[in-house]
Structures are given as structure tokens and as C-alpha cells.
Amino acid sequence: MGGLLVAVLLPMAAAAGLRFAVGARSRAAGVAASTVTLICFGLVLAAAAEHLHAPSSVSYPWIPQLGLNLTLVADGLSLLFALLITGVGSIVFTFATAYLGPDENCRRFFSYLLLFMSAMLGVVLSGNLIVLFVFWELTSVSSFLLIGFWHQREASRNGALKALVVTSTGGLAMLVGFVMIGIVCGSFELAHVVEHRELLYASPWAGPAAFLVLIGAMTKSAQLPFHLWLPSAMEAPTPVSAFLHAATMVKAGLFLVARMGPLMAGVAIWTPMAAGVGLATMVWGSWLALRQTDLKGLLAFSTVSQLGLIMSLLSQASPAATSAGLLHLLNHGLFKGALFLLVGVIEHEAHTRDITRLGPLPARMPRVHTLLAIAALSMAGVPPLGGFVSKELFLEWQLNLGLFTAVVAVVGSVLTAAYCFALAIGLARGRGAPVGEAAAAHDPGMSLLWGPAVLVTAAVGLGFAPQAMVGSLVESATAAAVLDAPLHLHLALWHGWSTTLAASGVAITGGYILYTFWWQQSSIVPATLITDRLYSGFLVGLEKGARAITDSYMSGYLWRYLVLILSVGVTAMVAAVVGSGFDSPVVWNARTTRAHELLIIVGALAAAVAAARAPTRLAAILALGANGYSLALLFSLLGAPDLALTQVMVETASVALFLAVFVYLPPYRPMRNKRFRPGHMAVAALFGFGVAGLVYVVRGMRVAPTIAGHFIAKSVPEAGGHNIVNVILVDFRGLDTLGEITVLSVAALAAYSIVRGLRERRADGDIS
Amino acid sequence: MGIEIPILLLVGALLTTGVYLVLDRTLLRVVIGLGLLSNGTHLLLLSTGGLEEGAAPVLAHGVSTVVDPLPQALILTAIVISFGVTALLLTISYGVYERYRSDDLRELHGRLDDE
Question: Which of A155, A344, A628, B49 has the fewest CB neighbours in a 10 Å radius?
Fold first, then answer.
């Protein structure tokens, strides 16, 4: 089991280590990454030899307080996926080393690819739902980075964003489902959850949890209506498309369906929803694939369709259907991986992947075309290739299920066969003569061909000897995905004369007819996806909506901001004051105001009003000064001589400063400013008297005695000062005063730099 | 201890005129408004500490009861800080006028983008 932990963590460590080991454009990055992948493949093989028939798991505490453990499960299902990931990975990594141009940043590319492989292995090996989610999102992130690898192209950036938005939204839905399951069953450990699944069935959360988990699976595996991101993801370099968007990452959703099968098969909506979506996706995806002229676009929609086919099988919770689905999943990994790599080769050599521009291929690229034709025919389900075996099992299952599913399955198979013939035969006959550089294309060397060749050989082998090659693997994986499955799997090429064989015949013949009389005859126009338009509309709407909301309050006018902010405060204050009923819990012996104090209060009031209504700037400044001096007088009468002194000094300095600036300012324009604004006045009055009312209401609510006694008692003995306020400022709270001095210094520096900057501009003649 | 209604009314009036002026279009009136706002706030702080009969908080011979010194220390700090704020704002208004030849916030709206 330790080997599997190494297999998960080693690529991640290598991804980080590449940064220090090799140069940015060095091919050594590819060699190192391929070596790491091969090591992982070896580790997984060793684990498979040990655990295929003896499943086990191991748990490393991660955040045990939250029930999070890095639990690794080695059973048939996880090993099947791990073998697919590391096996196809080994081929894709070595292929990419030869494929990437000398100007590409190989180091970055392989770092992302290694990070993805770590994440993907984490997904399939994890036995803890939350850890599975973390790795799941990590695959979305690394996929984002890889699709956007050519980030200077806008289409790449948009495709990357679309994939991230769709898959991570689904991931979040899945997380919510996981949390429901975890709370109901009392643990996030998968084994524990499956053991206590009756708790989930008995709770009202079973249906919502199943729905949400399926949304996660459907977004990741590009099922209707979330299939829009996969075609856009084709902006990625072709090895990435082969690895992530054909062989592995898009299968994470299928993996999830298989992994959650033992738990979710007992929930009513699980099988109908997943199987229905799967079949619909299969038919619609193959119809869309048939109408593509871009080879990668065709393969993308074909992947969507094939994933739907497998989804419809894996969600059945039946040993027969699940084993058929898993076998087709392996087949698809092989032939689709090969097809993507071969299309990459074609683009590499011909500089186009447009069917209408390539012309007949066999004359110029015989080897490439042979491999491509075999892989495509395997996808079509033509005997004696691997695809035939699993396609037969698929048709057999759907025929037994009922007439409706049988018809849908056959229609989907006809469409599938048609686009496969378009690849195998259409590229041989060509749609017109080759255009431009495509005319001079030729077969590449073995460095680019051996990878696809290995995959195609395996795909052929799966047709002749499926039981010998993957029989026990599929059997063990099925046992892990279906509860109490009595299973005696026998995979074989020949099942005897049966209705299934007839259905296969119909599919292939129908596909050939459709290809000959429709695809080859009519001009193909790729349609825009409705979901794509919805997605773009949503993005544009989001941006516009956000701008409209922001613009509605970010006006750039000081008073509008302040009115908004103050209104909120005023509402809260008025509510508090009115809610209190003006009733104070404590009755105070208020000091009566003396006559001369009243006089000063009236004076201060008059000065404030004068400051607001003054016709000239000078009068306003003087009124503000008068208000300040009145306050100083009031302070001195209320037993605060220090405040009075400070106020007088500060007020004097302020007035002097105002007058100094006064000289430079433009005419006061009192007419405009005297215009009375009742709205502003209302906000101001509500605020001012709201605060006063609040103070009136809370005036008795002292909850603790004053700490003044402490200062009064300690002032002389500890600080040696008789003026208590002074002692507090320079001694007891000396640090506060230091802070105050700092604030003043910063203000002074800022003021100085403003004035100095102006002076320099004036010297430069920028301003008069 | 207790709150005197006339002083509370003065606080309300100072805050009202202060806010009204801060909402104005002319920069100088905004600065004057902030001055009135801080004056009102200081008086508010003093009165929430409780106004009572008593000598100034200076310990001399024969003084037995003094008023609470703590709010006074707070307010003293606040007065000085608000002076710093006023000085900086005045300098900024001066700078704005020197550059844009206007002290009207409506006229100044969006002008920063001009340069």
C-alpha cells in the first residue's frame, strides 16, 4: 500500500521539483516526467498484483479532528482506473516529449501534467469523500492550466475558463451531496458510509444527495446539458486532450458513479437519472460529432457520446451492465487515446485538422491512416476489434431492458458507426483535394508513432483475447462497484448467433449507409451549441449586471456616498431610540445648567449656524473659530481646564491655517452654496439628533464602575504628577500619545509633500 | 452624574450642521463641516463621561473630589488628531485647487481621469 501513496505523491513532488532541476525549454523535463510516470505505472502494477483479489485499504491521518484521513483504497475499481491513468499516461508523456516544439515551455507543461496525474490518482484511490473532493477539484484546476497552456490565444483562455466554471460548479454540488451523506451516516469514510447506508435511505436527504453527486459526475464527464465545456477544451495541446479529455479526467465522473454505486443504487432517482442522461448524451453527442469538420471537434463530441454510453451502463447496479461499462471504458481509453494522438500527429505534419482541407490521407500518411482507421473501427464496434466486444455487451443489456432503450441504443450506435466511418473511410477518400501545407504532409518518424501503435495494438488485442487480458481486472472492479455481486465473468469475441449480433449488424450497416449517403454527399456545417450561447449570455449578463449595480451607487460624488452611509446608520439609530420608548432604566440627578453656561451654549449654537449660512468664506472661517472658542469656555466651566487650553491653541492654529489657505482659493460663490437642500438637511438632522437621542436613552447604562479612582490614587505616588489628565497622557497611556504624535507626523509629512509637489510643478511650468 | 439636556441639544445641533456642511459641494465647506463635527463629538464624549459637580482633576491641597479625568484624556488626544486631519484636508484642498482651478466637487468629478 505504501507504493500507492508514493504513486500519488511522487508526481506532485516531481511537478514542484522540475522547477529547480531543468531549464524552461529543456526536453529533459519530458524525459524526467516520463520516467516518473513509468515508475508510477510500475508501482500500480505491483499493487495490482497484490491487491486485485484481496482488496485492502490504509489510512493516514490528515486532519483527524474533522474526520479527514488520507485513506487509500486498493480494490479492483481503483486499480483499474490507476492502471489506465498511469498506463495511458506513460504513453502520452513520452509522446508529448517528442511532440512539443522546441520553443514551448516544456517544464511548465510537464509540471501541470504531473500535477494532474497526482490529482487523478488521488481521486480514484481515495477512500474518504472529502479527500476525494479535494483531489477532484485539483484535477479541475490542473485541467484549467493545461487547456490554457497557450494562454496567449484567446480561445484557449475562454476554453480553460469554461471548463473550470462548469466542472468546479459541479464539484461544489457534489461537495454538498457529500456533506449530506457524511452528516447522515456519521463519517466521510467511504467504507463506513457504505456500511451504514441504511441511515441514508431512511433520511430525507437521500434523493437530494444522489442528485447533487450526479450533477458532479455529469459536469465532469461532460454529460447533457453540461457537455459544452469539452469541445472548447480542445484548445489544449493534443497530448493533453488525449490524456485528460479522452482517457482519464472526463472518466472521473464515470468513476464516481461506479464508486458511489454500492451506496447510491438504493436511492430511487440514481439509476433512472444517470442512465437516462447517459443514453440521451450518447445519441445527441454522436449526432453532433457527425456534423464536425474539425477532427478534434469530432473526437470531442464522440467522447461526450461514448461517456454517455458508459454512464448508462455503470449506473445500473447490475454486475452484467457494470462489467460491460468498465470493459468499454478500458476500450475507450485505448482507441480514443490513440485517435487523439494520431490527430495530433496529423496536425503536427499537415498544420490543419480540418477534414475538408486534408484530402485523401493514405497516399501521404499511410501508417498514420492505418492506425487511425483501426482505432475508429474499434469505436464503431466492428469485429474482431475490442470495441465490438463491449459494444455487444452494451446492446445486449439495452435490448433486454426494453423496446425503448433498445431503439435508442441502436440509433446511437448507428450514428456512432457513421462518424467512425467518416474517420476511417472519409479520411481515406477525402473531401476534395488537400489544401496548402496538407499536400506536403507525410508520415512522421517512430518517435511520434509508437505510442499510438501500442494503444491500437492493445485495442486489437482486447478484441481477440479480452478474458485473458482484462478478465480478472474487470471482474474485480465490478465486485467493488456492485454490492454482493455473484459474478462469473466470461468475456469473449464470439457470443453465437443472437438478436444482439443482429443489432450490431444493423448498427454497422446503418452507420455505413448514413456515412455514404449523407456525410459524404452533403456539406457539413457545425452548429453552435444552445448551451454555449446560454453560457456566453450568462457571462455577459453577469458582467453587465455587476456593472449596473456598481454604477448605481459608485457615483463618484462624496455627498451621495455619505448620504447612503449615514442613512443606514440613521435608520439603525432611530430604530434603537424609538424602540427603547425613551425610557432610561436609571434616574439621574442631573446637574442643573447655570445661566452663564446656557449663554455660552446659545453662543456656540449661533456660531455653528453662522458657519453654515455665512455669505463669505472669511465669515464662515471666523464662525467656526467662534464655535471652537465657545467650546473651550464650556470645557473650562465643566471642570476640564486642560481641554480648554488645548482647544484654544488648536482653534487658533486652525483659524490661522484656514486664513493662510483662504488667500489661494477661488471666489466663494455663496449664491450657489446658500441654496438650501432639504434632503441633506433631513439626513443631517436625523443623524445629529439621532446620536443625541441615543445618548439620552443609554445615559444610565454604565455596566462597570469608572476606573478613574485608580488614576486618581496612583497619580502622585507612582507618576509624581498632580495634573491627572497630563499624567494619563504622558505616563499611564504614554504609548497612545506616541501613536498620536505619529499620526500628526504622518499628516505633516503628507501636507509637506503635497505643497512641495505643487511647487515643483509650478517650477516646471505645468500650472500657472 | 448626569446629562444636561441643553448640552445634549448643542451636541445634536453641532452634529447636524457639521453633517450638512460635509454634504456640500464646496471643498472648504466640507472641511469646516468636519471641524464642527469633531467639536460636537468632543462635547458628546465629555458629557457621556458624566457631568457632575467637582473640581478640575488637578490634585492640590484641599481638593477632595475631582471629576473623572479619563474622558478628558481621550478628548485631548481627539482634539489634537482632528487638528491634524483639518490641516491635511486644507492642504489637499489647496493642492486640488492649484491643479484643477476649482474647489467645486461637482466640477471636479471625473477630472482625475483627464491626466
Answer: A155
Give which of A496, A252, A271, A210 is closest to A405, Cα–Cα: A271
pLDDT tens digits along A404-433? 998 999 999 999 999 999 888 888 888 877
3-state class percentages of chain A: helix first, strand second, coil last, to nearest 5: 75, 5, 20
Q: Which domain holds residue B98?
A: 5-30+44-52+69-114
Phi, psi (5° rounding) for residue A740? -60, -45
What amino acid occupies position A419? Y
What was the pLDDT predicted at A83?
93
User: For residues A485 and A479, what is the distance between their CA atoms, to the nearest angstrom?
Assistant: 6
The neighbouring-strand residues paired with A61 are: A69
Among the partner residues A597, A608, A751, nearest to B91 by beta-carbon distance: A751
Which of B31, B41, B80 to mutate to probe the A interface, most A CBs <10 Å? B80
Chain-centroid distance of CA A761 in Å reads 49
CA–CA separation, A188 and A184 (whole Å): 10
Cross-chain Cβ contact B87/A654 below 8 Å: yes
Is B38 a domain residue? no
Please count the structural domains in chain B: 1
Question: Which residues in chain B have Cβ-Cβ distances shorter than 8 Å to A677?
Answer: 23
When the pLDDT of each residue in chain A is averaged and rounded to a whole number, the result is: 87
**Selected residue with higher pLDDT from B113 and A223:** A223
pLDDT at A111: 92
| Cα–Cα distances in angstroms (integers) from residue A502 to residues A400, A498, A506, A613, A675, in the given order | 14, 6, 6, 98, 92
- Encode pLDDT of A748-768 as tens digits: 999 999 888 888 877 876 655
Q: Give the pLDDT of residue A221.
A: 92
Mean pLDDT, rounded, for B91-96: 87
The yes-or-no verdict on residue A173 having pLDDT over 90 is yes
Nearest chain A Cα distance for residue B99, angstroms: 7
% of chain A exceeding 90 in pLDDT: 43
Q: Which of A312, A320, A285, A283 is nearest to A300 (CA)?
A: A285
Does the distance separating the beta carbons of B98 and A767 come in below 8 Å? Answer: yes
**Mutation site for A-interface testing, chosen from B11, B22, B24, B32 by largest number of A Cβ within 10 Å:** B32
